[in-house]
Amino acid sequence: MLGMALGIGVLLALLGCTATEGCVAPQELVSQLLQRLEGSVNLHEAANPSVLLAMNLAGGDRDGPIFKWLLQEIKEEAVKRAHKDMTSGQVALHVLALLSSCQDPQRVHALDQSIDLIHVLQQKTDEEMAQLETEGIPKTSLYSMSLDTLALCLAEAGGAQGPSVALAKRVLSPESQLSLDTRAMVALALACVYSNVELQDVQELLLEAFWTVSNSLLDEQEKGNGMIGNIYSMGLALQALQATREFYAPRKWDCAQAFSVVSSHDYQQPMAIAQVLPALVGRSYLDVAGLDCSATKDVSPSRQLLLSPTLGTHGVPRAPILVHYSITNTLQGKHFQYSTTVTVPSGSTLLQVLEVAAEKNPQIFSFETEMTSWGPMVVSIHGLAASTDDRTYWQFLSAGDALDKGVGSYKPHDGEHIQAVFSTY
Ligand code: B12
């Protein structure tokens, strides 16, 4: 079966049937999301490499001030923090952002310093692999390891083959329960290494792994009437399906159905837009390597609008709502469970609910957040902190179902019961 898929894939490639055929969203939607992404860039916050990566893949303006600011900040972050404070995945995202901006990640100069980001990435990937081999889990996550593998592969640096084999085995193992986003990122990484590897048995393993993932994504789409996982997994799922299209042929991908799901959602979060936008222009992270570095783009006048501040909702009174909130730890140390009900204006975020609960009763409901690329992440509640070493986190649920958004963007409704449960991943 696999051999046949490969044969047909090669044939299609020779005939010039590209992965993008028929799978491009309306230009209006692309421009709107690109504008939103550019408008999200805040000079007072850390630059997000995924945003620069997506802007480049979606044909954003490489001569514009936003692009230049992002690129400079990303270089500065790299020289300042890559060695010490960045996880392997964060280094990988910086490498991808630089490659997509036609920069050499082996020679990053900023603040009168230089760094070889590929060397740092190789070292950090080795650490991930070492822990995977000794403890069965990587230092951070298989998602990050996939990013590492993808970045090493696209930079044509050594060190991608070992992790790609480990990832392929994980994906094919019946015991491993990888999230959909992780499987999609693994597929992207393996599809890249597959094209560059010469050993036939390695090639076959990689092909089988990403072929399995792509088919499972297609199955999910069929079951979900176009939805693959949740709306925030769609970006990576679509990218994986674009990038591996010639390999699951003759099976057809109803990309129009998947695109209509994405098009009907009003993406607001910069990270969500950054992951979906490449797919909407028929590209994936794999296209980073093939971008035309000599091209400069005209600035579309409409993009200038972006920088206008978003209108506030001052003066509009909002009806109060009640939200029930509970915190539970039955996992570690002294177990606890506390509940409260807070009143907040309708339209408030969950973060505001947590803040009101903590104001009312700081002894019980105090909490801490950390800023991440997806917004504020709750890292501690009632003095109990999440830990990457123990693989614990505060999970948020409503009526027993895990929320598909974080506290900074989720808006509870009147009477809703939100639970924060100390959990493992
Ligand atoms: C791995 C992962 C996790 C791990 C992170 C731990 C770790 N050390 O790896 C764990 C299991 C803890 C986790 C938790 C949650 N996650 Co999560 N996670 C991911 C995943 C698969 C990869 C993130 C990553 O490693 N990126 C690469 C690194 C290099 O980038 P980074 O910026 O350093 O990554 C950090 C942040 O992304 C942060 N993080 C992870 N998830 C979330 C979610 C939110 C809302 C925030 C603010 C931060 C955050 O942890 C990462 C590692 O430190 C993404 C998938 C995706 N499409 O991006 C989902 C994803 C980001 N998570 C998601 C969600 C919903 C959550 C939860 C809110 C689930 C819940 N109901 O509790 C919680 C966060 C709750 C809280 N305490 O605030 C959604 C976010 C959607 C949205 N619109 O905001 C995603 C997109 C998955 C999805 N398709 O639904 N997650």
List keywords for this structure.
five-stranded mixed sheet; Ferric Hydroxamate Uptake Protein, Chain A, domain 1; alpha+beta; Glycosyltransferase; binds cobalamin; three-stranded antiparallel sheet; 425 residues; single chain
Question: Brief description of this entry?
Answer:
The chain has 425 residues and is of the alpha+beta class. The chain has helices at residues 2-15, 27-40, 49-57, 65-81, 88-100, 117-135, 142-154, 161-172, 180-196, 200-223, 234-243, 245-248, 255-263, 270-280, 350-360, 362-365, and strands at 108-110, 113-115, 320-329, 336-345, 367-372, 375-381, 384-385, 392-398, 401-402, 417-424.
What does this structure look like?
Residues 1-20 and 296-314 have low confidence and may be disordered. Helix 2 (27-40) packs antiparallel against helix 14 and helix 5 packs parallel to helix 7. The strands form 3 sheets. A 5-stranded mixed beta sheet has the order 4-3-10-8-9, with helices on one face. The longest helix has 24 residues, at 200-223. It folds into 2 domains: 2-292, Glycosyltransferase; 320-424, Ferric Hydroxamate Uptake Protein, Chain A, domain 1, CATH 2.170.130. With 425 residues, it is α+β, with helices and mostly antiparallel strands. The two termini are 35 Å apart. The protein has helices at residues 2-15, 27-40, 49-57, 65-81, 88-100, 117-135, 142-154, 161-172, 180-196, 200-223, 234-243, 245-248, 255-263, 270-280, 350-360, 362-365; strands spanning 108-110, 113-115, 320-329, 336-345, 367-372, 375-381, 384-385, 392-398, 401-402, 417-424. It contains 16 helices and 10 strands. The structure holds cobalamin.
